[in-house]
Amino acid sequence: MKTAAVLALSTALIATGTVVGIQGAEAATGGVGWGTFGNTSSKYAGTFTEDGARLVCGQPGAAYPTGYLNNAGYWDSYNGVTGNQLAGINRVLSENIDTGDRNTAAALEYAVARVVDPNAGHRNFAGQYMASYDDVINFDLYSTAGSGNVQAIQRIANDLVNTINSTTAGSGGQGSGRLDFAVDAANNYNGTVTMNGTAGSVGTITLTNGVFTDTGSNTHEAVAGAAYGVRGVPPTEDGAPYKISGTGRFTPPGQEGYAANVRVWNPTVNGQQRSLSPGEKVGPQVFDVSGGDPQDRATTFRPVLSTTAQAFVQRGAPFSDTVRFSTVADSNGLNNPWYRSPSTGKAVPILAEGTIYGPYDKPAAQALDQVPAGAPVAGHMTLTTGDSGPDIEYTVQSTETATTTGYYYYVWTIDAANQSNPGRYYLPSGYVFTDQFGLSAEQSTVPMRITATTQVPEPTVPLSGVPADVATVDADGYWLHDAAGNPIPVVVRWDAYLDPRESGIDEVDVSKIPLDATLLGTIAQTVTAEGEAKTPAAAALGFSAPASGKGSIVWVASVRDADQGTNADHIEEWTDRYGVPTEIQVIAQPVVTTAATVFTPKGGEIQDTATVTGTLPATGAELAFDAYQVPMKQDPTTGVWAPDVADGDLTKVCTDANRIYSNVGAGQQITTTGEYTSPKVTASNYGTIFWVESLWSIPTTPGDKPEQISRGECAVPSETTHIIDVSTKASSVDGSKSVTPGSAVQDTATVIGSLPEGSAIVFDAYRGEPGQPVCSDTTRVWTSTVTTLVGGYYSADKPLQPTSEAFTPEQLPADTALWFVETVRDKDGRTIAQGECGAPEETLALANSVKALAVTGTDVPVLPLLLVGGSALPVGVALAGLVVIDRRRKSAINDR
Q1: DSSP helix, strand, coil percent of the chain (3-state; round to 5)
Q2: 540-546-551-555 Cα dihedral, nearest 10 degrees
Q3: 895 and 838 in contact (C-beta within 8 Å)?
Q4: What's the CA gap between 622 and 678, in Å, rounded?
Q5: Which of 90, 489, 600, 714 has the fewest CB atoms nearer than 10 Å to its CB?
Q6: Upstream peptide bond of 590 is cis (omega within 30 degrees of 0)
Q7: Is 842 helix (H, G, I), strand (E, B) or coil?
Q8: Please, which pLDDT band fits residue 816 given cuts at 50, 70 and 90?
Q9: 754 near 842, Cβ under 8 Å?
Q10: Which of these, 511, 477, 471, 517, lies nearest to 497 by C-alpha position?
C-alpha cells in the first residue's frame, strides 16, 4: 500500500507535467513548527530542512523522512489535483516556506496535505478519521501548541487552502516581429507604422524624426498588427528630405505567474514520505523590433491664397483686403502642409504681394488669368505671414488711398524667388502663384459722388402756388455702370421746408434746421446722367405752397442712402445746406388796404372799399367784409354815453355779439388785384360802426374749408363809419321873432349820433336876394370862430347843441336875405356834416332894409368891417325884419 500510494502521487504530479526535478535527499532535520521533528509519539507540524532546502511533507500518512514509520493508516487517493491547484501549492510554498512563524509553518503543512490528499488529510496523527479539518489540527497540536495557537493555525490553514484553490497557473512564450512604415503620397508628413509580428503581442514603439498623430509624442503603446498614424518631424530646418524610423519592445501573449509544478523530494528509504518545495514562476518573453520609412519624405509645400476685398471703399481711405492662405497639390498629388519649426512650432513666413488695378466705370465681364495690358495701377499691398501661418485670416491695407470713383481689382502673387530664408527652402524651385484678374470677391468699389447746384426758377411763389426748384447734377468722377453696362440710377431728393421767415434766413447745416421750420413736402427724381433735373409741376409735385400764412419755402437737395435701394452702397450720401439763397422762394402775399364810408346820417347807406395789391393766391381769393356796431351805455347820473366795452378797449368790439353785417363765406371771388367795394349797408342806428375786411383762400378740393389769408384790425380809423345827424337853426340873439337892422343874430346846431373826438364846428353867413341863395366866397359876410366839440355819442333826448357867437349885420341892402351854413369837421379835417345853402331854418330876411347897391361878384362896396368871430363884416349895416323860416334838416357829407 505504501509503495502504491507513493507511486500514485508521483505519477499524478508527473502526469500534469509539473515535476520540476527529482533528486536524492540527505537526512532531514526539523525546521519551524510545533512538536519535535522525528518523534513518533507526537505530531510534528511545520517545515523541515533537507539538503539545505526548506520543505514540507507531501505524502500524508507516510513515515517521516527520518525513516520512522507511522503505524496509523492513511488514504492513498490523490485524485482531483489540478494544474491550477498545483500552481496554488507552488504559490503558498513560495510565499510561506521560509516563514519564521510556527503557526504559519504548521498551517502550511496542513493546507498542502489537505489539497494533495483531502481524504487522508482528515485523519489525525493517531490515524483516526475525523469529520473536520479543524478537528484534525486540534487533535494533533492541542497538547504542543495550546488552544490559542491551534485556533490561529486553523484560521491560517483555511486561508492558505482558499489561496491555493483561487490561483490560476501562469503561462508564457516567445515572439518576434518588425516595424513597417507607410508614407502618405498626398502628404509626406503623414503615414502609419505597424508592428507586424507574433499575434497578440503588446509593447511600445519609439519614433525618430516623427511623432504619433493622436498623442503628439514619439512613443506609443501598440499591439501587433495595428496601424498607428505618424507625422514627420524633420531633423533639420533647411528643407532637406528625411525619414522616420522606429524601435519597439513587445511581449507575446501569456500571463506571468506560478507554474503548475512543485519540486518533489524522493525519500532514500522506502516507506518514507516524499517532500515538497516551491516550483517555478513563468511568463511571456520580451522581444525587440525595428524599422524605417521605405523612401524619403519631402518638406516642400505649395502656398496659395484667396481674398475677400472690402466691398466699398470711401474716398480718402486705403484699400483693404482680407487674405486666407492654404496649400495645393502638385501634379503628382503631393500636398504637404505648411512647414512649422519642430523646435518652436511657428509656421515658416511667406511673402505675398498684391497690386490694385483701377478705376473702371463698370465691373469686369469675366475673370482673366492675365492682367489686361495697360491696366491702371491704383495701389500696392504686401503681406508676410506670421507664426500662425495659414491658420488665421490677415487683413492688409494699401499704402495708397482711394481718390476716384470706380471699380478696382486686386491681384496677388507668391513668388519663390522673392522669399527670404528660411521660407525659400520650403517652396519648390521656380514656384510662382498668381490669382486671377477680375474676380468678384477681389473687387472694391469707390462709390459715386453725385452733387447738385440748385436755383429756384422764381424768387417767389404765391399762396396755394406750386413751388419749384431746378438742380444741375454733377458727378465727381465716373458715373458707375452695372455689369450689363447700364448707368446706375441715382435718386435726387428735394425737401421743401416752410420757414416762417420772409427774410433773414441763415444758411446752416441740415442738422441745424430751425425748429420752427416744418417739412412741407418731398419729391424724388431718378437721374442716370449729369445734367439738369427739375421738380415736377402741379399735381405731380404732390404739395403746394400753403393757402395762407407768411414765410418762405426753403429747398434742400440731397442724395440719401434710404432713397437708393440696392444701389445705396454705390453712391455717396450728399446733402445741400439749409438756407442757401438760391434755394429760397418767398411766399408772395396779397396786400389789402381799406377805406370805409366815414360819415352818414341815420338811414343812409354805408360801405367799405378794399384796394388789393401784391400777389393773389394761385387759386384766387374770396374778399369778405364784416361790420360791427359799437355798443353804448348811458351814465344814469350824468347822462353821458360811452362805449359798452370791457376796459373801454374798442378793439374788443368786433365780436359776434356786435356784428351787424357779414358776407364771409359768400364774399366776392377775385383773381386779379384792384379796388373792390363791399355791398351797401343801411345805417339803421346812430353810433359808430367798425369795418373789418378779410381775405380767404379758395379750396381746390371740394369739401375743404377755406383758410383765412388776412384780416383787418378792429377799430381802425380808416375803417370807421360815424352815423350822425346835425341840424341847425338861425335866430336873433334876443329871441324876438322879428329881426330889425342893428339886431344881433346867431346860429345853433343840434348834433345827434356819433361825433368823433376832436371834431370842430364853424358857422358861415352869406347875403343875397331872398329866394336866390348863393353861398360862395363872394357872398360870405361872416365866419364864426371854430369851436371844438366834445366827441362822443349823443342821443335825441340829450343832443349836443353848440351855438355860434352873435354878430350884427350892418348896412345891408334892402330886401336882403342871410343864409347860415354850419360845417362840422373831424380832427383830420374831414367834413362830417355841412348845412345846405338856403335851408329854411338857416335863412333870415330883413323886414325894412336900407336901399343899397347890389352886391354881386366882386362889386362889394368898400365899407368899414366889423370883425366878428374872426370874420370881417361891413360896419353900419342895419338888419331889419329878419324872418326865421322853421324847418329841420339833416346834413351830412360822405367823406373818405
Answers
A1: 15, 40, 45
A2: -20
A3: no
A4: 12
A5: 489
A6: no
A7: helix
A8: confident
A9: no
A10: 517
667 strand-pairing partners:
none
Q: How far apart are CA 455 and CA 582, in angstroms?
A: 5
Pairing of strands 262-265, 19-23: parallel
How far apart are alpha carbons 210 and 243 in whole angstroms?
9
- Angle of helix 102-116 relative to helix 83-96, nearest 10 degrees, comes to 170
Retrieve residue 273's grid coordinates.
514520505
How far does CA 619 lie from the centroid of its chain?
A: 46
Q: Rounded CA gap, 78 and 751, in Å?
A: 173
HEC-encoded secondary structure of 327-358: ECCCCCCCCCCCCECCCCCCECCCEEEEEEEE
What are the residues whose beta carbons fall under 8 Å from the beta carbon of 506, sequence distance 6 or more? 579
The alpha-helical segments, DSSP class H, found in 668-782 are none
Helix (H) / strand (E) element for 10: namely: helix 2-15
Q: In a 3-state reduction of DSSP, which class is residue 527?
A: strand
| ∠ Cα 587 591 597 (to 5°) | 160
What are the helix (H) ranges across 294-373? none
What pLDDT does residue 889 have? Answer: 36
Q: What is the CA radius of gyration of the chain?
A: 72
User: Across-strand partners of 682?
Assistant: 605
Task: Residue 116: name the closest of 2, 8, 28 by CA.
Answer: 8
pLDDT tens string 659-701: 999 999 999 999 999 999 999 999 999 999 999 999 999 988 8
Find where cell 409741376 sits. 537
Kindly tell me the sign of the dihedral angle through the C-alpha atoms of 704, 541, 575, 507.
negative
Compute CA 486 distance to the chain's CA centroid, rounded to the nearest angstrom.
33
Angle (deg, nearest 10), helices 102-116 and 133-165: 80
> The C-alpha cell of 692 is what?
373789418
User: What letter represents residue 270's amino acid?
Assistant: N
**Distance in angstroms between the alpha carbons of the first and the last residue of the chain:** 178
Spatial separation of the C-alpha atoms in residues 518 and 543, rounded to whole Å: 13
HSE, side-chain direction, 13 A CA sphere, residue 820:
32
Q: Do 665 and 705 touch, CB atoms closer than 8 A? A: no
**What is the separation of C-alpha 98 from the centre of its chain, rounded to a whole number of angstroms?**
89
Burial (CB < 10 A; 0-12, 13-18, 19+), residue 410, is buried
Q: Which residues of 248-266 are buried (b: 16+ CB within 10 A; e: fewer)?
A: bebbbebeebbbbbbbbbe
CA distance 820 to 586: 59
How confident is the model over 298-353, as pLDDT tens digits?
Answer: 999 999 999 999 999 999 999 999 999 999 999 999 999 999 998 899 999 999 99
- C-alpha 837/C-alpha 840 separation (Å) is 9
pLDDT tens digits, 547-571: 999 999 999 999 999 999 999 999 9
Rounded distance between C-alpha atoms, residue 541 and residue 467, angstroms? 9
Q: Alpha-carbon distance 543 to 183, whole Å?
A: 81
Which residue from 249, 309, 253 is spatially nearest to 444, judged by alpha carbons? 309
Query: Cell 337892422, residue?
Result: 741
pTM flag (> 0.70): no
Cβ atoms of residues 688 and 712 within 8 Å: no
